[in-house]
Design goal:
By secondary structure, the protein is α/β, with parallel strands linked by helices. 32% of the residues lie in helices and 26% in strands. The chain has two domains: 212 residues, 3-Layer(bba) Sandwich (FAD/NAD(P)-binding domain); 199 residues, Polyamine Oxidase, Chain A, domain 2 (Alpha-Beta Complex), CATH 3.90.660. It has 14 helices and 24 strands. Helix 2 crosses helix 13. Bound molecules: flavin-adenine dinucleotide. Flavin-adenine dinucleotide (FAD) binds next to helix 1, strand 7, strand 15, helix 8 and strand 19. Flavin-adenine dinucleotide binds next to helix 1, strand 7, strand 15, helix 8 and strand 19.
């Protein structure tokens, strides 16, 4: 039996929920892909689950905006996630399939094609165009003399990364990108020209930080399949947020034990002598306090750091959280074609890189859905590129994101953090950042890791529903 007692102390509303039953009350903080997946994986445990989300929508990074296109038609654009391949994102696809959210018609499929430019502003010949590969030949195109050597070096890079990706357990767990390249004798000339910029672009690292990045976090993005295999990538025509909302709506209807609190920002957590946790959250200018048996953080490390204030037992977590860096990126939807997309190379993903190592990434949205007409999504812009866009007056939307810099040290800290959380009792961490790389796949997977750490029986049930989950190696 649950009874609630509400008190007002110095203007703060306190809600104590006292439980006279053995079932746990679980708090999931954050309703991005990881928080939603965790909720769904735990939904059948028959515990009361409260999900706190500071925004008025779920989805987190996987969020959509709505704008009018050139013909006045309303279109939705996903500001965050865009592409995945069935090979590297098998659990994510399995998760969508199981929930009837993977309809091939909802996706645009394309062959990976990346163009690297050495000039930010002119429609100059690209430095490198990723090889178009079929079973019998590799074709690449650049207008410079060196094109064959570049193509071969890129091919070598893709094949070696694929080999690594397939057998990563055989390599040292903390292998950095630089040590991977060194052990394979890559030509430093090409590293600067396009290998490092591509690695920086897929991980959102700055080029100077690429050498220390974790090899697994790069190979996950670029090499899920062999470069000679006929692999396809997919882009959702509507944002992933739509799929997540559909799935979650269904679960809330089926499981009254799930409670979503939107516009509810968790601001403080305290541990109690009885092993429980007291969460303080702000909702529409009111403060509330609520007690829980178990806490699942589905928010990034910098957000966790902000809500662990003075609790002496939790203070130690800060040691690891302090050194888990994130990078800010601006995502801009615009239709300034002159400077950002070469007319000649109508490819999906363009990476512009200049001599100083600044780069930007642009995606032609009309390659995904013709409703997007002339829009381009660009990110990782330098001040200069941003000023070009600003002065063009063609910006439709701009937004800010944070992306983890998953280095060797970052991975080590995730490990200590999880261990420390476990030693404190019922504390867990979910989120793309808790895995090898920050993707939709790893965000979903992190929810499954939490379930497996809590309840093996239900973990096995999910393995039957989504067979790829049975191949997952569960860390703490
Ligand atoms: C520009 C960009 C492009 C990307 N492209 C791809 C791609 O092509 N393919 C791919 O697979 N992945 C891609 N990703 C990565 C993917 O978007 C993320 O890995 C995934 O969405 C992370 O989900 P998450 O739930 O871990 O975190 P988040 O989405 O960050 O969710 C955290 C949630 O917690 C909430 N929150 C934070 N603090 C609090 C608090 N104190 N109280 C309550 N709520 C709080 C936030 O509002 C948010 O809703 C991209 C990301 C970006 C930014």
């Amino acid at each position: 039996m649950i009874f609630l007692k509400t008190l007002t102390v110095t203007g703060i509303l306190l809600i104590y929920s006292c439980q006279a039953m053995s079932k746990e009350k679980i708090a999931i903080i954050g309703a991005g892909a990881a928080g939603i997946a965790t909720t769904i994986f735990l939904s059948e445990l028959d515990n009361k689950i409260v999900i706190f989300e500071k925004n008025n929508e779920i989805g987190g990074n996987a969020r959509e905006i709505e704008i009018n296109n050139e013909y006045g038609k309303k279109i939705k654009i996903d500001l965050g996630p865009q592409y995945f391949s069935k090979k590297g994102w098998g659990n994510y696809v399995g998760f969508l399939k199981y929930h009837n959210q993977f309809n091939k018609k909802d996706y645009y499929s394309f062959k990976p094609s990346i163009v690297v430019y050495n000039s930010q502003v002119e429609a100059a010949p690209p430095l490198f165009v990723s090889p178009k590969v079929d079973r019998y030949s590799i074709k690449w195109s650049t207008k410079t003399k060196d094109s064959t050597a570049r193509g071969l070096e890129m091919f070598k890079f893709l094949s070696k990364s694929y080999k690594f990706n397939k057998n990563s357990k055989k390599y040292p767990s903390n292998l950095t990108f630089q040590s991977f390249l060194d052990s394979n004798n890559f030509d430093s000339k090409y590293l600067e020209e396009f290998i490092n910029p591509i690695a920086a672009a897929v991980t959102n690292f700055e080029i100077k930080d690429v050498p220390n990045s974790h090899m697994e976090s790069i190979s996950d993005y670029i090499s899920p399949s062999h470069p000679l295999s006929n692999s396809k990538y997919y882009v959702a025509k509507n944002g992933i947020a739509t799929a997540l909302k559909n799935i979650f709506r269904n679960y809330r209807y089926r499981f009254p034990n799930l409670l979503l609190k939107k516009n509810s920002e968790v601001v403080d957590i305290k541990t109690k002598e009885n092993g429980r946790f007291e969460i303080t959250y702000n909702q529409l200018n009111n403060h509330f306090v609520e007690s829980f048996d178990r806490i699942i953080f589905a928010i990034p490390p910098y957000a966790i750091k902000k809500i662990i204030n003075n609790d002496s037992r939790l203070r130690n977590l800060k040691r690891y959280l302090e050194v888990m860096p994130y990078k800010q990126a601006k995502v801009i939807i615009h239709n300034e074609h002159e400077h950002f997309i070469s007319r000649e190379y109508k490819r999906f993903l363009n990476i512009g890189v200049d001599g100083s190592g600044d780069y930007f990434i642009s995606m032609q949205l009309n390659r995904i859905n013709k409703d997007f007409t002339n829009y381009i999504k660009s990110w990782d812009l330098s001040e200069y590129e941003y000023s070009i866009l600003k002065s063009s007056g063609k910006i439709k939307h701009e937004s800010t994101f944070w992306h983890p810099l998953i280095s060797k040290e970052f991975r080590a800290n995730v490990h200590y953090l999880k261990r420390h959380g476990q030693s404190l009792g019922k504390i867990h961490f979910a989120g793309g950042w808790t895995q090898r790389s920050e993707t939709q796949e790893t965000a979903i997977l992190s929810g499954f890791h939490v379930l497996t750490n809590i309840d093996n029986k239900h973990s096995n049930i999910w393995k039957k529903r989504i067979p790829s989950l049975s191949k997952v190696n569960i860390e703490l």
